[in-house]
Amino acid sequence: MTVLQEPVQAAVWQALNHYAYMDAVFLAERLYAEVGSEEALYLLATCYFRSGKAYKAYRLLKTHTCSTPQCRYLLAKCCVDLSKLAEGEQVLTGGVLNKQKSQDDIITEFGDSASFTLSLLGHIYCKTDRVAKGSECFQKSLNLNPFLWSPFQSLCHLGEKLDPDQVFRLSSLHIPVAPPPPISPAQNPSHRLDTALMETPQDTLELNRLNLESSNGKLTSDSTVSYIDSSLISPDPCSLLANTVSMGSTGSLLGKPNKPKSGRSLLGGPAALSPLTPSFGILALDPSPGDPGYLQNYSGSLDAQQTAPSKKVRTSTAPLGRQEAGRLGTGRLLVRSPAPPSSVTSPQVLSPTLVAPPNIQPRRSTRLFTSASSTAKENSKKLKMKFPTKIPNRKTKCKAAKTANSNLNESLDILKLDSSMNDSKGLSTPGYQSITLQRAATDMVLYMLRELGRGYQALCCYNCQEAISILSSVPAHHYNTGWVLTHIGRAYFELAEYTQAERVFSEVRRIEAYRVEGMEIYSTTLWHLQKDVALSALSKDLTDMDRLCPQAWCVAGNCFSLQQEHDIAIKFFQRAIQVDPGFAYAYTLLGHEFALTEELDRALACFRNAIRVNNRHYNAWYGLGMIYYKQEKFSLAEIHFKKALSINPQSSVMLCHIGVVQHALKKSDSALETLNRAIGIDPKNPLCKFHRASILFANDKYKAALQELEELKQIVPKESLVYFLIGKVYKKLGQTHLALMNFSWAMDLDPKGANNQIKEAIDKRYLPEDEEPVTEDFLYDSESSMTDADDSQLHTAESDDVL
Amino acid sequence: MATPSKTPPGADPKQLERTGTVREIGSQAVWSLSSCKPGFGVDQLRDDNLETYWQSDGSQPHLVNIQFRRKTTVKMLCIYADYKSDESYTPSKISVRVGNNFHNLQEVRQLEMVEPSGWIHISLLDAKNSPIRTFMIQVAVLANHQNGRDTHMRQIKIYTPVEESSIGKFPRCTTVDFMMYRTIR
Questions:
Q1: What is the value of ipTM here, to two decimals?
Q2: Is residue A200 a contact partner of residue A463, using CB atoms and an 8 Å limit?
Q3: How far apart are CA A744 and CA A754, in angstroms?
Q4: Which residues of A touch B12 (CB under 8 A)?
Q5: How far apart, in Å, are the Cα atoms of B70 and each of A594, A598, B96, B98, B106?
Q6: pTM of the model
Q7: How many CB pairs lie under 8 A apart between chains A and B?
Q8: At residue A171, does pLDDT exceed 50?
Q9: Are A394 and A246 in contact (CB under 8 A)?
Q10: Contacts of B23 in chain A (CB under 8 A)
């Protein structure tokens, strides 16, 4: 039976790799019917899950006992996807009611996938309101695997202050090990790839090195080099664990950071090598002439492939030429090509997680590189991987200078050193070389993660200026990506610099038109700037592109809200909530719409829902404060505004609101102080000055108020409110001419407003002359009436009753 | 006496809505009619469609009652009437009454229309020229053109003034620069 499984399993993985889910499912079902083992069960469940039918995987796994960690992990994942959080937790930890396993138990039990398991568990805890446990899980997950971004992100969202420098760092657990000892084909069937994947701690380094050296001789040209993602290798005996001798040579491949080009692979992403990483892993950094990007290297003769790299390889890898398989770095590329059965097939484990002696060890971060693409658990016998050619780096030496990073330089130095060492020793210590190269590669990745982590953390704490400076200083090719630009745009948005934010977001749209994350912020930016055309275009584009993402409906809602069609906006925001009940911003926007339509109770409920979803959503706290302000419950309003401020301390708009509320509570001194603080933070905010002036006015400090207002006139010369307030001040001072002049200017600037207040202010004046009656309806009959009736405005009529 | 000039049509209320100075609050009220022909009732009166209409089916005066859950500020009432399509069904004399309940209504406006051909704006201002606050509004059709018995009314919209800026009791601000900082969204 065991023997039978392998070809079928390999075929299934191959189908999965090619996204041919129907084929994969069919074969897996046959396999499971035939064998009925847990492995086959896992395979079938994986096929279902990957084809998008989580419910099938869920039901399958539920009805059959699954005791292996992989099955349990997959079952838990299905549960979470289907929102059955309690069940997911039970699967992972043994239950809410029963004795729960501790996290250390989980680590030992799940071994390789402990970091993902803990991340999932943390997610469950956070969703079920056990934030402390959740953050603990996330921390542990990051400890095990510093390449995971989502636990880091979740921790930032929870408001935890992490130190990205500490987080994204390889600990001793993660030190790349020397290439795994070569496994001769004869041994293969017996090897479990799982163990192979295990990281070998440092102590096995020596062992590996020795192995490597010894295997040097073994590998011959017939072995095809192949990359295999460690995860690709099926747990079954297939393991033709690569002979990592080539690792050594590949180490040299890692070479220098290259100008990123097509052949980039970032941590398992499909191919993005940044110049920072001498080799984030895989292949070629540089689209060297034989390097069409790694996915394409299926063809080509073995020789060609192997010689090409060797030419480039600085170190004399010639002897190892054929065995270049040892690509360091992300072995995502699963290059498969049928090879003559006679040749030794040894799919190599390219990933830095070289096959290690069968010690179960904590996961190695480098392995993570490769894990991403998954799939391919292949029957090594059947698959021959071609060695993707890329090797580039030599060329990139000169490009290395581009990166100003000291880190980079360091790694470069290491690489150079290694290369030279290689040259001199003639491959004497390929293992050592590869290790250092791997190390350098992972350092690069981690460096990138650290930078982005710092920027992201700053943004989550609303240190927006700092976030912008950190994120703007990442290398250009990273800067010009959707993620970085979106977060910079968001930082500008939080600073209330909407024009800048809009500029950045439009750049995002240009670069990554398919990006929806962050588009809701863009739409709010456009809403603030009142750019209705851009907003409606964005809305149409997003709703056409993806009807199932909440951001698209939020954008649509914002679009209609700007057009004052609040009922339709409400409908769209409700749709956003339906699509994703965990999207806090949709609740907030809905709350704002209800507030605008005066349905304050429903608005309150919406804001509270937003806070339930995300406690640190300061917009929702602000919304609550605003509702209480409208209801004139000023102390409640102040409490909520202050809570919002505690989350986002740099928001001048918030401080402005607090100032106004304090004034309403008759605490004018603290109000003025708050407003001074607001102006200190953001001198460009005209409303702060305006409110300061109005408070001074209310406190009878007319001169100071006038001075404020004069300054304000310079900043916003077209704002009618400013003239209105100036007029009122002059009226109080008794200077009627100036007052009237300003009131008339105010009315001129606000033709459509038909501001009763301004009219009243003028009415109250006793105007000695020109009491022309103005018809009641003239203001409504046509919008143009105002401009025609300028003169009559100045002398607005007093109705018959007034006098 | 000279032929009375026709009532000119007012602006489309949608334009007014777009200025953000008024808001349609008919959805917050309970609407009822004194009588109607089946298929030509409240829904047709409030469906935003100028092709459909309410047709009354009783004796004059024909009444449209608008009752709010709470005392609401009302600034303006807009009625769409079109002599060319409705001829003798077109209302010619309309009275607007407000009050707390059916027994408490007082007339605030009465207007005569001569061959209207579009939207008629009726502002509801009290003695001090501010919008009235009321629980209930009743629109009564007292007479039709050509002494018709029943009336057609195609659409009615009721508007409230939009609250001033979210903070402070000031009139609306006009420039984008100011409005940007007005609220956190």
A1: 0.84
A2: no
A3: 12
A4: none
A5: 17, 12, 19, 14, 18
A6: 0.71
A7: 135
A8: yes
A9: no
A10: 564, 566, 597-598
